[in-house]
């Protein structure tokens, strides 16, 4: 834990204050507390003026406008702003800050980063600075200079709170103008070639507007933001440990590594996939020193998530996930951060820290083979009612075992169905060749076969291959929400051959 902060994958939340979906669920400090107790190290707060404009609320302030056609956005700005401000009930910022202070280090002693999406006036920015300073006191990490040349190590930031947001608008304007001047001489395509294939999870993205790919996260957008007086927000600016910023021009320019400054850039999940086609090596090199944050597409109104491996393969430290959403993607995220003692920080593989890193993994040979022998399972009769799966007979369990990782490593296999047995014995063996074992996760799912309807989900776990210990192991299972089942366990043997 002694390398710079940018050398680690970090357990990152998205819209951390929402209790459910992105449109109408309540805003609360409760999901923030739950996330911190699970080991999440990056919490996101959206800051807006309250109804009387004299205090700061946390709420999801803009739902859906970036996904309208361009010609409709201007006409709908006012309407959607009003609607979106009433769909999610706000929570006071001070309440969130106090809860973060109380629970930040309940699961891990390593630093917590608060990313702020700021829609405030300079006066309210000053109030936020005062709140943050008074709430966290000595826990707050204040950078010694305006621009850090390198991030400190997690070991040096134990029990510290870091603020990450873009500087107040006036500090970016001069640099933005310089960027525009540089771009005039180049007519390169912003994103390069389109991906030739879509994964199953991306099929629903085919109708997304191209403009949505060019829009950055809300925190990197200027819509709804007030004009800023440069003399009114110096205290707020001094709190920023990890400066963020929007991409105003070509991505290749935004990914240039500056020798005397470190920063954070945010990309949507769609923008990342397009960027990897032409700028894969640039992404890796950028993340060796700077932060790259990936966030879910805005059409994930139900708080679903996306495939995290694409970001990890390219060195992205902050894969921002909706922790209040459930499903296989979140299971993978939970599995990754079971590594390193569950502290919320996982060291990036050496190949991603190589100065000359080239992210073409397809040409590499098999580096390791994992052999998995599934012996048996037990404990379901204690965690489920006897009629939970079948009313008149014991369940028919089978196991799915596979790898999540780089594309060439991904595979899923299945055992035979064991009929009418609460304590099934499969005694089946599977071998998985791994090109990039450093990013591989072992997936284990148990289902109950149903002849007439959809098979029932029974339990799951995801484990980092890099931390598997050889030999016969008792492996716990978790439910859909990632909660550990009380009694259910699996007996599995692991070998590297």
Automatic annotation (TrEMBL):
Residues 200-228 have a biased composition (Acidic residues). It is a peripheral membrane protein. Keywords: Cell membrane, Hydrolase, Lipid degradation, Lipid metabolism, Membrane, Transducer. One of its GO terms (biological process) is response to stress. GO terms for molecular function: phosphatidylinositol-4,5-bisphosphate phospholipase C activity. It is found in: Cell membrane. Residues 170-196 have a biased composition (Basic and acidic residues). Gene3D superfamilies: C2 domain (2.60.40.150), Phosphatidylinositol (PI) phosphodiesterase (3.20.20.190). Residues 170-237 are annotated as: Disordered. GO terms for cellular component: plasma membrane. It comes from Gossypium harknessii. Its cofactor is Ca(2+). Pfam families: C2, PI-PLC-X, PI-PLC-Y. InterPro entries: C2_dom, C2_domain_sf, PI-PLC_fam, PLC-like_Pdiesterase_TIM-brl, PLipase_C_PInositol-sp_X_dom, PLipase_C_Pinositol-sp_Y. SUPFAM superfamilies: C2 domain (Calcium/lipid-binding domain, CaLB), PLC-like phosphodiesterases. Residues 266-352 form the PI-PLC Y-box domain. It catalyses: a 1,2-diacyl-sn-glycero-3-phospho-(1D-myo-inositol-4,5-bisphosphate) + H2O = 1D-myo-inositol 1,4,5-trisphosphate + a 1,2-diacyl-sn-glycerol + H(+). This is Phosphoinositide phospholipase C. Residues 347-479 form the C2 domain. Its EC number is 3.1.4.11.
